């Protein structure tokens, strides 16, 4: 699956991008500031970066420079306001692969992304293996042993996020941005509530709470360390 990092601080645009990309078979990760964008571009393995110019913390140009200085070659598509095109073209300095002016249609963006990412050689699996639990991406149901479990849309999205990051600690903010797309307040306890739903439906020991940090999907298998 092609993994797209979205760096966009406007919640409405970020959620428009996430929904459209997920519907087209991409996996997305969204951040709302420049520092997080530069950090994730370094630490995680993304196939493409969609980068807004006007980001808090560090603007898109600075992110671009930092990413390219480190020698990362992932394709980067820059999003810019229509009245900032001249500045943008100057600021790209050869570091970006393409740019789009806001507002843009999703189809326009998709065409640019497809031109920049290699076609997948192997078809995307339709079942994600999560240890004791498996997730069927077509029927959007979980399978535990011989039980098939119905999931609501949010439960499915949360489960899929956990499975795609199996063994990694995901913070509440990461889960909020990935599954709820910033449509909830930071103080919201919706993540806790939904993790509770998943534990009841799928098994209490699949998802560990990592105190002060977040949650980790272990798949109900014994860990290597004590
Ligand atoms: Ca912005």
* Low-pLDDT runs: none
Give the N-terminus to C-terminus distance in angstroms: 33 Å
Please work out how many helical segments DSSP would assign.
Answer: 8
Give the name of the CATH superfamily of the largest domain.
Response regulator
Structure in words:
This protein is α/β, with parallel strands linked by helices. The protein has 2 domains: 3-117, Rossmann fold; 127-217, Orthogonal Bundle (Arc Repressor Mutant, subunit A). Helices cover 38% and strands 23% of the residues. The chain contains 8 helices and 12 strands. The strands form 3 sheets. The protein has a 5-stranded parallel beta sheet with strand order 2-1-3-4-5, sandwiched between helices. The chain has a 4-stranded antiparallel beta sheet with strand order 6-7-8-9, covered by helices on one side. A 3-stranded antiparallel beta sheet has the order 10-12-11. The longest helix is centred in the first third of the chain and has 13 residues, at 11-23. The radius of gyration is 19 Å and the shape is elongated. The model has no long low-confidence stretch (mean pLDDT 87).
